Amino acid sequence: MPDTSQAPKTFPAPKDQRLRDLADCIRFLSMDAVQQAKSGHPGMPMGMADIAAVLFSEFLKFDAGDPHWFDRDRFVISNGHGSMLLYSLLYLTGYKDMTIDEIKRFRQIDSRTAGHPEYRHATGIETTTGPLGQGIANSVGLALGERIMNASFGDNLVNHHTYVFLGDGCLMEGISHEAISLAGHLKLGKLIAFWDDNSISIDGATSLAESDDHPARFRAANWHVQQIDGHDTDAIRAAIIEAQKVTDRPSMIACKTIIGFGFPTRAGTQKAHSDAPGEDEIAGARKILGWTSPPFEIPQTLLSDWRKIGAKGESARMAWAIRLQTASPEKRDDFQRRMKGELPSGWRAAIAAAKQELLGSEKDLATRQASGIVLNHLFDAIPELLGGSADLTPSNNTKAKNQVEIKPGEYGGSYIHYGVREHGMAAAMNGLALHGGLVPYGGTFLTFSDYCRPAIRLATIMEVRSIFVMTHDSIGLGEDGPTHQPIEHLSALRAIPRLAVYRPGDPIETAECWEAIMDTPRQAALIALSRQPMPLLRRDPTDENRSARGAYVLQEAEGGERQLTILASGSELHLAVEARSVLQNEGIRTAVISMPCRLLFEKQDAAYKRSVLGETRARVAVEAAVQDSWDRYLGVDGVFVGMHEFGASGKIDDVYNKFDITTDAVIRAGREATGKQS
Question: What DSSP state is assigned to residue 649?
């Protein structure tokens, strides 16, 4: 028998029958789609439908006929399992690619209506919100992006809100603490969150696992907080009006709702959360809510009302378009360029200038230092670059010399202090990238990519240009020891499909990697940089970007056909170069291959890859990390010089010697691979 212990005996009568009818359109599309799929989460769409009806019909600034209008309000569902609420709204308001057939194909292969909202699957989906908490953190980035762009282009071109629905699960996830704290600190007054306070989780009542006072928590984080009945449309309206008046704090509206509103036995219980309701439950809901239409059918009068809601923003959009056209030519051209995701003409000159500065250096440089020099040049050439770090700015070298810091309520700068919030930073960066007009990059240590990984993965799924700057990329960070020395991280990150992981081997490669990153607008990228100084291996003053193909022959074998191939990346590349010199003198014809980015190399044609890797089966790979991501290039006869255990605390040279990652080790491996022991 269904658990009805918490099911409401009655449902509150509507304050406004029209709004209740509009909300019921969402409810019945959602339950019908979940029932047909025999899978899904009907509870949240049914519980939050009244709030959505008020927000979309009276407040949200959008035009379904032009979904990409830049100055639209952004709407995000952080509790993405309730995706049918969003899909229902997109269909009802008239988004062309969200048809009733797509609603019927909910959760089916190749449909636009995936189990969780997927960015670019359909217009109107602002971000991919799968793991709980990502959406609220994305929304912080969206709201911050609006304020930064507003500071550059003014109210006439950029003046919109970000609205986010979030649930109990979002607030349990640790990332929500990071995101909420950052938003409150930065005084993001254009961010309004609606908490679906239904007290139910998959396991049962939320009291099984938490007893937090969430309104108090938000207040402590400098948010404006209201608490309302989430089914009282008058209260919903009044709360949104009040929230919009608050300009110096983000707003949270705690909406007490009934999960599965309308279900006769499952409403208010865990059964409403994620189970297909069954035909009897749906029939009961139709009776309780007075809904007489068959499955997937919306009464024409209500559909007409919803389509009018979808079109009501057209006049605002057209007025905005006029303001854009009448803006000064310089401002208009810059704005339109940014909207297209195009970089300023001549930006590559900044890379060339950085290379010249690096070539002129008379000392060894850590690639984190080289990256800082490149950013000094890039920022002056690309004003939309938006930097930041998770409280490691001096270590990450992520702040260009001319960047101005963003402060609470002051958004005219281009550098963000994210605090020790690696996960929140990465997810907010995704929101900034999604917003448009900005190119965000943010720094931390490579070992803390574990803290960022869910957001990095989502950036890659969405194909947005979020740039993750990860320094201290090996045991070469030395004294901080094994907790801070990334061992398995490069292999783990390279395993993420479509993520471009760069590990430059000298200052010139660092500049080339940054050029490749900036040259690829729809690709998430991570650049791993050293703490320790490295020699300048590339002294050829060429405009060619050799790193852009992912791997290349740094030094070819001399004296005849290649006998040995040494593959390396990053701070171990110079060990390969030093070892080659000895091996060549011993008569082992040796080539050194630099592999700064596997993803780019794998995109090359077979002929190029063969020319780089060579035909010999005698191969050595060297990297101060685990072997896993090298196996495809080493083959069964290759030898790996690297880490097989966690690191140790000590001076950099001592740590490398302890784990036998040295020039001598590479020489011995080369002899072993070729069977020519000295």
Answer: -
